[in-house]
Specification:
By secondary structure, the chain is an alpha+beta fold. The protein has helices at about 20-25, 55-70, 70-80; strands spanning about 15, 30-35, 45. It has a three-stranded antiparallel beta sheet.
């Protein structure tokens, strides 16, 4: 169901730093859009699933998870997943 904003009910929403969210949406409007006004207070960004590659979605989900988990959990995960160097 279309919400009238180009976002369908059930489209993915992921955590994203509020101070970087506008730049992401302006830089790639075909992929990302702001959440509804009532949800702007959260660190969320909406994405159009059809416009995003699986690896990019994986990175977004992983970064969102990293923002939420205790630092020691992320540190252990990163230690056991060497492909994350540079994050």
């Amino acid at each position: 169901m279309d919400t009238g904003r180009g976002l369908s009910i059930g489209e993915p929403v992921t955590a994203y730093p509020r101070d970087q969210r506008d730049a992401l949406v302006v830089g790639e409007p075909e992929k990302f859009l702001l959440p509804p006004p009532a949800d702007l207070r959260y660190q969320w960004v909406c994405c159009r699933l059809a416009a995003i590659e699986p690896e990019e979605m994986r990175e977004l989900v992983l970064d969102a998870w990293r923002m939420c988990v205790p630092k020691k959990v992320w540190t252990e995960y990163a230690r056991t997943h060497p492909d994350l160097s540079g994050r």
